[in-house]
């Protein structure tokens, strides 16, 4: 949304704004829902026949990859939480969703390595499982760094605000000018 605000013309931007304010969009952008969609899509792909079919059908493979891109972007937006028009979830929830989704993807990678993937040659599965686990961990580390930076920024802003309030409370009151000084325009 932030990028769209800076680049789109007014009419498409209004349409996108209505889409962002849509209750369905807000529900999909909730971190738990986004994680279920992202992790669930991966789980369904690698435990069912779709993975094997997508290796033989380029059209299906493209649909699967676009789907992964979309749910991955949705999860990223939900965890980072900076899109305009969508309320940011509490940081603890976003961190928990990130950790849990990474753990589930890691477990999925282990199950893939142990049980294989239906319709995929056994010699190809270990590298796919390693890529899934490594990608999940790398994704979690990058988003974890973003969340840590956000936390430090919020803590710094809170400290600065507290310093301003403290300075206002402890500022000594200057001498009160007398009525004669005010009338004559003298400085105190």
Describe the structure.
- With 188 residues, this protein is mainly α.
- Helix content is 78%, strand content 0%.
- The protein has nine helices and no strands.
- α4 (31-47) runs parallel beside α7 (91-115), α5 (50-56) packs across α6 (58-80) and α7 (91-115) packs antiparallel against α8.
- The radius of gyration is 26 Å and the shape is elongated.
- The protein starts with a helix and ends with a helix.
- The model has no long low-confidence stretch (mean pLDDT 82).
Descriptors:
mainly alpha, 9 helices, 0% strand
Draw up the topology in text.
Elements: H1 2-7, H2 10-20, H3 23-28, H4 31-47, H5 50-56, H6 58-80, H7 91-115, H8 125-170, H9 179-184
H/E series: HHHHHHHHH
- Overall pLDDT confidence: 82
What helical percentage do the residues reach? over 70%
Structural class: mainly alpha
Please tell me how large the radius of gyration is. 26 Å
Q: What coarse outline follows from CA principal-axis ratios?
A: elongated
Distance between the termini: 54 Å
Q: Please report the number of helical segments.
A: 9
Largest sheet: none
* DSSP, total strands: 0
> Approximately what portion of the residues adopt beta-strand conformation?
under 5%
Uncertain stretches of 5 or more adjacent residues: none
């Amino acid at each position: 949304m932030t990028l769209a605000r800076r680049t789109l013309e007014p009419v498409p931007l209004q349409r996108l704004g209505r889409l962002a304010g849509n209750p369905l969009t807000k529900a999909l952008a909730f971190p738990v829902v986004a994680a279920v969609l992202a992790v669930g899509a991966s789980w369904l792909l690698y435990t069912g026949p779709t993975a094997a079919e997508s290796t033989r059908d380029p059209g299906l493979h493209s649909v699967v990859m676009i789907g992964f891109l979309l749910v991955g972007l949705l999860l990223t937006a939900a965890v980072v939480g900076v899109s305009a028009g969508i309320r940011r979830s509490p940081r603890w929830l976003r961190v928990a969703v990130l950790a849990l989704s990474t753990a589930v993807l890691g477990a999925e990678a282990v199950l893939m390595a142990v049980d294989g993937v239906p319709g995929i040659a056994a010699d190809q599965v270990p590298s796919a499982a390693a890529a899934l686990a490594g990608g999940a961990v790398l994704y979690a580390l990058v988003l974890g760094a973003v969340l840590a930076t956000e936390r430090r920024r919020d803590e710094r802003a809170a400290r600065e605000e507290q310093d301003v309030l403290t300075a206002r409370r402890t500022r000594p009151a200057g001498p009160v000018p007398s009525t004669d000084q005010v009338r004559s325009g003298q400085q105190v």
